[in-house]
Amino acid sequence: MVPLLLLCAAALPLVARGAIPAPEEAARMARFVLHNCDWGALATLSTQEGLRGRPFANIFSLSDGAPGPHGGSGVPYLYLTDLEISVQDLEVNSNASLTVSLAQTPYCKKHKYDPQNPLCAHIIFCGNIVKVNDSEAGLAKKALFSRHPEMESWPKDHNWFFAKFNITNIWVLDYFGGLKTVTPEEYYSVKP
Ligand SMILES: *[C@@H]1O[C@H](CO)[C@@H](O)[C@H](O)[C@H]1NC(C)=O
Ligand SMILES: *[C@@H]1O[C@H](CO)[C@@H](O)[C@H](O)[C@H]1NC(C)=O
Ligand SMILES: *[C@@H]1O[C@H](CO)[C@@H](O)[C@H](O)[C@H]1NC(C)=O
Asked: Checking CA distances to 190, which of 33, 159, 162, 167 falls within 20 to 30 Å?
């Protein structure tokens, strides 16, 4: 009896710290994975000479709020400059896809889940990138600079600006049997 009690007591803080949601809670899973990720792969439609119209995936730092157990806003904020090759694509066509995966957290390594294993949960967002207005820029700055302190020292003459991924479609890959879709309404209304 005693070891069982001890086990239960030991398990409690994990839940309190925001353990991974159950696979049937797809909207919460999407929020959980995004909040636990510091970066993602962003695919744009290339405008480069010789590559025009072809998919082009690149890594971007992101944040939906300060790290920690209490969820986040769910909004993937980004810090961008027009000098960046993918941002040049977005100026022509802001449509994009963003993928985040628990492969970048200790979770999949601890459970020995290969990144392509659905149990190593990954989320695919489709939508477009939009510049945020001045009032939202404060939130975006707090979200990004708390996780990516180096951003504060990035060259001022690059004209960095705050942006967000405007989510229109969400796919959740967190279990066997195919992917699940979540609407942006479900995603933003769920308690993370
Ligand atoms: C972006 O995607 C939307 C939705 O599919 C589409 O209506 C729009 O034409 C696309 N924008 C461009 C610039 O291709
Ligand atoms: C800024 O953007 C936010 C989020 O889209 C919106 O709720 C708010 O009304 C906007 N503020 C202004 C002053 O346009
Ligand atoms: C965000 O996405 C919605 C749905 O596709 C679209 O109607 C809206 O225009 C987008 N917002 C911006 C600022 O591009």
From this structure: 162
Nearest CA to 30 among 99, 104, 106, 114? 99
Q: Which amino acid is at 92?
A: V
Indicate the DSSP class of residue 63.
B
Q: What is the pTM of this model?
A: 0.90
Give the DSSP per-residue string, 78-98: EEE-TTSHHHHHHHH--EEEE
Spatial CA neighbour of 147 closest among 28, 86, 60: 60
**One-letter amino acid for residue 137 of the chain:** A
CA–centroid distance, residue 1 to ligand 3 (Å): 56
The string of pLDDT tens digits covering residues 109-163 is 999 999 999 999 999 999 999 999 999 999 999 999 999 999 999 999 999 999 9
Q: Domains of the chain (ranges plus CATH)?
A: 21-189 (2.30.110.10)
